[in-house]
Each structure stands twice: as C-alpha cells, then as structure tokens.
C-alpha cells in the first residue's frame, strides 16, 4: 500500500513539474489580454528576449513636467511577460516632477541613483508619507495609491523603479482631470476649482470641454 501511494505521489510531482513553463516571452504581434501576451514559440526565443538596453540613455526631460519615464514593461521588454516583474528609469531635470499618479496593477520600489528626490504617497485614509531621498535610498509605494516624485536637487536626478507586474498600468491625476474632454463644469463640481482655473489647466494640458 505504501509503495502504491509513493508511486502515485511521484507521478503527481513529475506531472506538475512537466506542466510548469520556465518563461513566457511575450509575442508582441498578438494582442495583450488581462493575463498578458501570448507566449512566443520556444524555438523563436533568443537571449535578446531577456536583455533590455533601453534604460542606458537618459529620457527627454524637455517637457512641461521636466521629467521622463523610460519603461521596460512587457510591451517594451517581452521577457518579463508573465513573470510578475518590470522596471523603469526616471529622469528628473532640476525642478522636474512626476505628478500625482497611480499604478492600478502593481506596487513600486524606487531606488535613487543620482541626485535627490522628494517622494511621497497618500494612503486610503489620507495619511501622507513623505521623504527626501538621497543616492542609494529606497522607497516603497503600495499598489494603487497616489504618489509622486520631485527633484529636490539642483542637478539632474535619476532613479530606477521596479514593479510587481509586467504591466503595472499608469494613471496621472492631472492628465485624468485636465487632458481630456471631460466637461469643465463636471471637473469644477468634483474638484471645487473655479471655472477659470479649470480652463487654464485644460489649456496647458490639452484638454477640451
């Protein structure tokens, strides 16, 4: 009886291991679904699917926020597809800011590698967690919570951020309110801002209505 149980257990273990894939490199020619991209055929996978060089160069900070985010998500780095991880580079020129935003699909871990960054997040209880980070410091931003980063140095600041998802998602609060065609009267009603302020912000960020 014991031999039979051991044999059956061994078969279960072997079959469970046999069904586990080492990786699922994303097939970017296929549509992305809630579970990510379909897997590329193993015979087509190369080492380059597991290497990403796009974070070597600084992003273009010549914009309204004086900052740039260079992502290495599944859409840019198909090797992370299905593995629950991804990474990005943040470049902030002096006075640069990554505005209040959320990542609906992942928590974020930030590591400062150059300069200094003032970073913070707001909990669902509206408690504020704020810290000035220096080179080598690390800060965590829990999934789904509003957070931001501001260059607090007089020089370019750089950070690398990792996420607990290959596609963490992104929604920037200012753009959600003022960079679309949501009627100004609704924005005013829900934010308590006056008409002139709302229309001025829409003019800056490209919104209408």
Automatic annotation (TrEMBL):
Positions contributing to Mn(2+) binding? 101, 103, 108, 147
Tell me the compartments it is located in.
Answer: Secreted, Extracellular space, Apoplast
Residues annotated as signal peptide = 1-18
Q: Where does oxalate bind?
A: 103, 108
Top-rank lineage group of the source organism: Eukaryota
A Pfam family this chain is assigned to? Cupin_1
Q: Which GO terms describe its molecular function?
A: manganese ion binding
Disulfide links within the chain: 24-39
Which GO cellular component terms, listed alphabetically, does the Swiss-Prot or TrEMBL entry include? apoplast
Any keyword Repressor?
no
Q: Which residues form the Cupin type-1 domain?
A: 53-199
UniProt keywords (A-Z) are: Apoplast, Disulfide bond, Manganese, Metal-binding, Secreted, Signal
- Family, per the entry? Belongs to the germin family.
Note the PANTHER family from the entry.
GERMIN-LIKE PROTEIN SUBFAMILY 3 MEMBER 3
Kindly provide the name given to this protein in its UniProt entry.
Answer: Germin-like protein
- Origin species, per record, is Escallonia herrerae
